[in-house]
Amino acid sequence: MSSVVSSQRVLSGMRPTGRLHLGHYHGVLKNWVRLQHEYECFFFVADWHALTTEYEHPQSIEQAVWEMVIDWLAAGVNPGAATLFVQSRVPEHAELHLLLSMMTPLGWLERVPTYKDQQEKLKEKDLATYGFLGYPLLQSADILMYRAGQVPVGADQVAHIEITREVARRFNHLYGREPGFEEAVAAAIRKMGKKQARVYQDHRRKYQEQGDEQALETARALVLGQQNITLGDRERLLGDLEGGGKVILPEPQALLTPASKMPGLDGHKMSKSYGNFISLREEPDSVDEKIRRMPTDPARVRRTDPGNPEHCPVWQLHQVYSDDQTRQWVWEGCTTAGIGCLDCKKPVIDAVQAELEPIRRRAEEHARDPDLVRSIVADGCEEAREAARATLEEVRTAMGLNYR
Ligand code: TRP
Ligand code: SF4
After folding, report:
1. Can you give the pLDDT at residue 4?
2. Do residue 295 and residue 381 come from a single domain?
3. pTM here?
């Protein structure tokens, strides 16, 4: 009935922005591809989040969803390893969002920095809406729904993970105290057997009295390793360890994605709106041309002028794509005018082409087979819904709302 607290679970989402580029690949997708083999991963398209800013043109979202999913698959996100789904197809997110909204103080939402920042930044849109204010809480529902232990996000999203932790804490505090909690905990501890119960109690004391995190970890592992206690007991014990009630919604951690070093063609952050990107499905000729046209150190007017790689965006691409030896060659050649800029760009062009070749091919395959893509997502949605239903069941029960 209930799904267990799972620190091994990872959840992350992306708003549907359509086709992705190398910035997304190096900043996010490569990380997801790695994580999918290490954790139980849920990756989803945050289409309702897109609606908070695109509500005037909701028709544009659909295509952006499919294009983005195709690019995820092309980049190597594997539906055999991770669960891929679309937020709006798991309507449980809306119910959890609503329930959480009842106990979330308005001030918490008004204080999230992205609220004012984005309103400032997207001045052309009217974002003085209820939905936009609730954006971080919808995100909290996304995360808490899967009891994710880790949430890979960029630095801009850390405040949203923080509010998620506060909401979870408040929820557990309000609804995690079932009548008879202490007695139930004592009974659960007895079920562990004398020896293990002693170990559990010692470690709990070490954590609660001395803040010993290692002891907390050990006790947690002990609880998770128990075969003969119920899932409910397991959650009570986990709650007992941290000195609260039953942990119904565990607090997630932000898994900070290292800032992508992937610069755009002009040396600024690669971004669709700056027009300085190479898309994951960029044709080879276009890749060639975009890199050939990249600006270089403005001081290198003639081939015979020495340059300074530090003043050149191509040098930044060498940081991503080249080994030490090639970089050495660039530095030498540039500062002594030994090589021309086109020579210098050649290894970058080759590396980008080699990187994109399989991605482009997989994207084409999936683009040609929309039924396959839809069925991958349909399966993922089913799987996600199952996990979501289990959580909601517990949430309703904890709140005394399971009377239908
Ligand atoms: N707000 C995130 C962004 O703009 C997208 C998102 C929505 C998300 N729900 C999430 C990310 C849950 C991580 C977890 O990038
Ligand atoms: Fe930039 Fe390379 Fe030209 Fe130097 S040689 S200015 S690093 S492109």
Report:
1. 43
2. no
3. 0.86
